[in-house]
Amino acid sequence: MKKSVFSGLKNFFDGLINKESQASSPSVDEDDTKHSTTVTNPDSIYYVTRESVCDSFFGSVSEGSDSMLAQKIPVSTSTPATHIPFFHIQKSNRALWEAALQNNYELCKDLLDHEIYGESAADSNSKDQQGITALHIAAHEGFINVCEVLLDYGSNTDLNVLNVIKRTPLHLACISGHTEVAQLLVRSGADINLVDIDGNTALHLATEKGHRQLVLWLLTRGPNIFIKNNAGRTPPDLAKSIEILDIFKDYCRRLNLPLPILGMMPMSSHERYRSEPRRVTISDLTAIEENKESGRVTPNDFEVIQELGKGSFGEVYLVRKQDNKNYYAMKVLRKDKVMGQNLIKYAMTERNVLSYVRHPFIVSLNYAFQTPEKLFLILDYCSRGDLGTYLNKEKRFSEPLAKIYVCEVLLALEELHKRDIIFRDLKPDNIVLDEEGHSMLTDFGLSKEGIYDNVTARSFCGSVAYLAPEMIKRQGHGKAVDWYLLGVLLYEMLVGTPPYFSPNREELFRNIQRGLLKIPTHLSQETKELLKDLLQREPAKRLGTRKDAEEVKEHPYFNGVNWDSVLRRELRPSLPKKTPIDDVVIPNEKIYGDMSQFGDRSNQVTGWTFISN
């Protein structure tokens, strides 16, 4: 590198400190500036003085009261600040930090490449004296391409790495309001409920900073909104605007949770809430849930008729509600399996998505409750089974029938993408058919990327067949992954097997990444072109990457489709045979277990209970 690997960092911190010093206007004597002037922005990353910025690039740093990556580090008042080594790791790691700071993701990729640098390749988890990694830097600055490179090319890059004040890259992204970076980190596995040294979660920080869109999105990921920071404040307590407070209020209303308590706003801002009889505090949660209100739903409200399916974490049963005699599908998740394998966030994702998304082609959640041993989701019952079973019976579908299913699934994906939800697990088994034969997306949680190791080898192969190339490579992926999987779905419906399929897992991996796409010659030209465009291995070139669903709809394959008619469910798919119902009630204790401890809250999952309006 022609210039020092430190020069970019030095200029950055010089500029940052000059800017923040002017904003804070510290009162100091000119002669004392070198030793005492500090940055006072509490949300900067590094705590350094003017002296330390210069010194750090020559081997030492002074601890100051503020900085840009490590936040709120208390400065000792009993002893003078001392110089400590700033960089103690190899040059490649320092170069990686600078490349991250300069948003040079190509250089980051090279520095992490062991084929280029061998044992001298940079370590994506390397930390400075304040516990800061390249991912901290990129997340704070909002450099999403750098974040993707660090996650994809780093060796087991730690998403939940803590700096000296216990802040993760997600914390920093939320402070800065970088929604896309936060989404990438969470979808890649960052823990949304980790707390920093002040007890703040990512939601606390986004709320306090007033990042409305980020708060909205974080709430779709099932955060624990009842976590209190060291000051005894929950995220709703930190809302400084009516708009964000309304977000929490609406969220809690939809999910049947206690109302958020009023935040630290001026009293005049609360005018619209004064008509409410009282504030509902976090401590009311126990009392509210223990009250036997008329709308409360318990296991005793349902008769279990028969088992519909079985998975690694529980079962799905056909149930009938006692009062209205309506049929539902009851998904049962064993807490010991879900919590024992740290999969509760996936269960919460499914519960949250299904609770607030209402769409003609997405299964709705009607109720959610729990016992000490199990979690329950009461979903719409789709009486004609799943598309995978129907396809296995028919071997393949005609082009017109496949087109109906593709149109309906496309609209479901469009709705999810509008809400910044990536389905990622589109396959025939996750599409169920309702009474009229329409397709309905289901299973939004436990079948996600990264959970496949928990199933059998055969199931693993089946799941791998529905992975996009970028997912296999563990590259950062966005909404384009769902359009690839739509292509896989269309291909399988028309051919009878997924593209590139092989019973050998390693061969299947290779085929998806490098194999030749074989498209039957008897298919229409428009269908062939759509398959090629959707199954494009390079996400940037894939159909749907630029304008999402609108771009896919504009493909010649969909010429003549009246999308309003599709949305009104006016298309007429074929009607597979209904699943026969053996109307024999299964004893509740066999399904729910020991109900004598139903009120036991020791194993309670916060925020699970739900009653649809």
TrEMBL record:
Leading EC class: transferase
EC number annotated for this UniProt entry: 2.7.11.1
Family: Belongs to the protein kinase superfamily. AGC Ser/Thr protein kinase family.
SUPFAM superfamilies, alphabetized: Ankyrin repeat, Protein kinase-like (PK-like)
Binding site for ATP: 331
Gene3D superfamilies named among the record's database cross-references: Ankyrin repeat-containing domain, Phosphorylase Kinase, domain 1, Transferase(Phosphotransferase) domain 1
Catalytic activity: L-seryl-[protein] + ATP = O-phospho-L-seryl-[protein] + ADP + H(+); L-threonyl-[protein] + ATP = O-phospho-L-threonyl-[protein] + ADP + H(+)
Chain ranges of the Protein kinase domain: 302-558
Coiled coil: none
Extent of the ANK repeats: 130-162, 165-197, 198-230
Record-linked InterPro entries: Ankyrin_rpt, Ankyrin_rpt-contain_sf, Kinase-like_dom_sf, Prot_kinase_dom, Protein_kinase_ATP_BS, STKc_AGC
Protein name: non-specific serine/threonine protein kinase
Keyword terms: ANK repeat, ATP-binding, Kinase, Nucleotide-binding, Phosphoprotein, Serine/threonine-protein kinase, Transferase
PANTHER family noted in UniProt: RIBOSOMAL PROTEIN S6 KINASE (PTHR24351)
